[in-house]
Amino acid sequence: MIDVLVAQRGKGTLRAFNEAGVLAAADVHVALRLAGLGAEPDEDVQLATALAVRAVRSGSVCLDLTRLRDVGADENSRIDPATLPWPDDDAVLAALRRSPLTTGSPTGPLRPLRLVDTDSGPLLYLDRYFRQEQTVRRGLDARARDYPDVDEGLLVQRLDELFRDPADASRPSSAPDRQRVAAALAATHWTTVVAGGPGTGKTHTVARILALLTSLHGPGVRIGLAAPTGKAAARLQESVRDQAGLLGLAPDVTAMTLHRMLGWQRGRTRFRYHAGNHLPFDAIVVDETSMVSLTMMSCLLEAVRPDTRLVLVGDPDQLTSVDAGAVLADLVARPVTGTPNPVFVNVAARDLAAADDPDEAAFGAGERERLRGSVVRLSRGRRFGGGIARLAVAVRDGDDDEAMRILRSGVPEVSFHAPGDLDALRDDVVRSADEVTAAAVAGDAHTALARFETHRLLCAHRDGPYGVQHWARQATEWIGVSSGRRPDPDRWYPGQPLMVTANDHDLRIYNGDTGVVVRRGDDALVAAFVRGKDPFLLHPSHLSAVQTVYAMTIHRSQGSQYDTVSVVLPDETSSLLTRELLYTAITRARRRVRIIGTEDAVRAAVGRQVLRASGLRRTILTES
Ligand SMILES: Nc1ncnc2c1ncn2[C@@H]1O[C@H](COP(=O)(O)OP(=O)(O)OP(=O)(O)O)[C@@H](O)[C@H]1O
Q1: Which of 168, 287, 301 is nearest to 229 (CA)?
Q2: Is the dihedral of CA 64, 68, 69, 74 positive or negative?
Q3: b/e string for 160-172 if b means 16 or more Cβ within 10 A?
Q4: 371: CA distance to ligand 1 center in Å?
Q5: Using only C-alpha atoms, what is the Rg of the chain?
Q6: SS (H, E, C) 234-252
Q7: Cα–Cα distance for residue pair 207/63, rounded to 1 Å
């Protein structure tokens, strides 16, 4: 309830911003505490400090001092922030330049803020985040200074074997093949970023990268596979194992959460692996990197040996991590530092020179520049029907007219419904619940879990008329009316859809995992979760943190896909309604996406991009 609190000690400008809901009480408290410790009476500095704390709270790594007033109204704002008593930008900057909080306190070593001049203006950091960003920046730059030794002949041969023409497996795929380029980059550079939307073959490519590295360095090559969440790690492991036989990879290849790979230790603040104790791998692949925060990325880069290949995979257009940073998007957009390995230039020459193919676009000038920084984007969607892919691209590119045109075009994969037009949604909710329940009652966990993936109802908010709670109640009511049964909310029942809300490392059940309650042969109820080929079963009472999930937030759905996705959009004033949110929701759908909301809400979402300030995309000129 931080939002409604007003800091008792705040005065003047801070108090006005706090009362307006722009600053939370916690922002004010931190700013006043730092000002007290650093003997800084200047109100402008105190306001900038509080805004820097707020910036981190809302996902930025720093405060962009050229856009102070862009803090924007959010759910907590009670008045239009533009009407607040904003100080003059130049005065704030001048005060920060001479402040003991940025230059060092005369009363001690305290220097909690960093003022950094960049090619696009000054940024204000809380010291901790500046240090983390520097770790990432310097780590990446150092890793780009040289490259691994690779046998070019063997590399060409293996690339040809691994990337085959889908229509005629007896020959290599035609150029340009971006997946082959991604694998060539990963073999020839210490750090590679493989970006791509859903279904563009990221996991397919990862499996081939692992096979390639195994050929180049022998079967003893030590590979670490990780993802930021347990669910994503389980999915990665499953996909790679599916292809292991075909590609000659070890059948027991395992993936783990990044926390686990880094050696999270109960009760300790530090990971087991760090700059003084490097991770014992020759190659590390991280999937779903868009969900990795700046803090985790800096821990990872510190812990990676300089001669370990690091491959970062993910979709930079998706929602970013809950914590501060949008590292993957920053890495894709950051200025290129290193020089490419000449072996790569030779090996990829055919793909780089190729013209557009009916299936694959040629590399443009901007992309060639990115390749120099070992960043490649996979672009050919291999899973969606055309309508979903075109809608996702229109949203990603900020083209609201095109998004509306597709939504209203009547293509079978996409439909658009006014807020009260709920018949089709109700039918899908009731049908999928009936199918899940029938399988669960019959004790068929496999089918129950499969049917549970056929439809998902997604919301932006948790609370309120557009929130998960409201829509879960609505879904329960529809199911109750249709089936004539009203489940007792305090008892487990067959067909009950579950979502885990906290990690349990011992049970290997993770926050965000979804499952279904199923009746076993002896009539006992078990909770079933997807784990590889066979469902993982356990008594529901072993689950310490679990919810019934007839609707879920779009944030929670990240990393999963469903046959049909229904998205309830909030009204256009909701600050949660952003391009990244809508893109993430649409791309959760494998076959069909249904958007429920107004045209204004769609246009507002497409028009509002999450702006997470960070210095990674900029060149630093000076830092105080
Ligand atoms: N080059 C290819 N030839 C044939 N099939 C492919 C190729 N690349 C990918 N696929 C197939 O396309 C589908 C999507 O690929 P994959 O799962 O690797 O995509 P992804 O980008 O990892 O998706 P997600 O974002 O869901 O993780 C899979 O069924 C995969 O087998």
Answers
A1: 287
A2: positive
A3: eebbeeeeeeeeb
A4: 21
A5: 26
A6: HHHHHHHHHHHHHHCCCCC
A7: 39
DSSP 394-419: HHHTT-HHHHHHHHHTT-TTEEEE-T
Per DSSP, the three-state class of 542 is helix
CA of residue 177 relative to chain centroid, distance: 26
Q: Do 621 and 63 form a contact (C-beta atoms < 8 A)?
A: no
Question: Could you tell me the end-to-end alpha-carbon distance of the chain, in angstroms, rounded to an integer?
Answer: 35
Q: For residue 460, what are the CA distances in angstroms to 116, 145, 501, 584?
A: 35, 43, 17, 11
Torsions phi, psi for 584 (to 5 deg): -60, -45
Ligand 1 nearest atom to the CA of residue 200, by list position? 21
Mean pLDDT of 539-555: 90
The reply to whether 196 sits in an annotated binding site is yes
8 A C-beta contact, residue 354 and residue 175:
yes
* CA 89 to centroid of chain Cα atoms: 33
The string of pLDDT tens digits covering residues 61-117 is 999 998 888 775 454 455 677 788 889 999 999 999 999 999 987 666 678 999 999
Which residue has the least CA distance to atom 31 on ligand 1? 204
Reported as type and span, the H/E element at residue 286 is: strand 283-286
| Cα(55)–Cα(68) distance, integer angstroms | 10
pLDDT above 90 for 530: no
- Please write the tens of the pLDDT for every residue from 289-302: 999 999 999 999 99
200 lines ligand 1 (CB under 6 A): yes
Query: What is this structure's pTM?
Result: 0.87
* 473 phi and psi angles, rounded to 5 deg: -60, -45
- State in Å: Cα 201 to ligand 1 middle: 3
What is the share, in percent, of the chain residues with pLDDT greater than 70?
Answer: 96
Q: Render pLDDT for 428-468 as a digit per residue (tens, 0 to 9).
A: 999 999 999 999 999 999 999 999 999 999 999 888 888 99
d(CA 518, CA 448): 8
219 CA to centre of ligand 1 in angstroms: 25
> Which tokens belong to 156?
């060409």
CB 87 within 8 A of CB 31: no
Sheet holding 255-257, edge to edge: 255-257, 223-227, 283-286, 309-314, 191-196, 375-378
Run of H or E including 567 = strand 562-568
Which ligand 1 atom is nearest residue 243's CA?
31
